[in-house]
Amino acid sequence: MNNIKIFAGNSNLKLALKISKKIRVPLSKCYVGNFSDGEINIKIHENVRGDDIFIIQSICYPNNNNLMELLIMVDAFRRASVGRITAVIPYFGYARQDRRVHSSRVPITAKIIANLLTNVGVNRILTVDLHSDQIQGFFDIPVDNIFGSLVFINKIIQKKYTNQITVVSPDAGGILRARSLAKILDNAEIAIIDKRRHKFNNAKIINVIGNINNRDCILIDDIIDTGNTLFKAAKTLKERGAQKIYAYITHPILSGNYSKNFKQSVIDEISVCDSINLSKKININMGINIETLSDILSESIRRINNGNSISAIFKNDLK
Questions:
Q1: Nearest 5°: CA angle at 192, between 186 and 198?
Q2: Quick one: angle between helices 175-184 and 149-158, nearest 10?
Q3: Residues with catalytic annotation?
């Protein structure tokens, strides 16, 4: 490793420590706290001049606070004359507003965050399962968007299914993700849930396109928030003849009435990644399996630092 230093904000110290252990580089010393009035207080306790800096920070709840921590940390490092700054953002928040639908009077928050990160001095972004691939185009710096689905592949392949498999995309936007997974599973069939979203976090299921009758269904998606849409989709699959349903979701936001929705869920098994720290929420829903992103993120960090290809990690997996 060449002049590498790894720092972490407060959003997901658990994951940062796992990455640090995997890559055999201890977390460097930096105070990330608050002044008495609540403003964020950052102080770097090591010499970082000319170093290759990686800051691990998810933009998750409390989103605004975690975002400001990241921005202020970047500014502190830039003023300390570091060589390069890579923002490692396991969960890239504010990404669900990435366009103006029918010229509605709304912001494009994903673009705002891209501008902030670029202008404050970030040289490179490493993230996992951006909500929309086109968000990479909002940046004028390199963006490495890792497939979170790779974390689940071995578990999905080794699962003992009692029926034939159908990979299900919960909406049209996830077709490529579902198709890539189906290809790995010996070209399994895919199905698409046709839904209409009449308000945020609430959608109406119109139709299921594909064969799911008497089959085990694998639901794959990037985000689970309240769970309302996902669990409606699972209920519809069951009503139309699906047998067991397994859900693999990268980012577990789990807000609003997610606890109530989980209790009413017909999904047989749910697996998520640790892009967001669930330590305060997981006890409510003991049925959630958590898979770590530390292996794939630590390997990506090593390759960025050494100037090696990241895409080579995935050449035999999802494309």
A1: 155
A2: 40
A3: 195
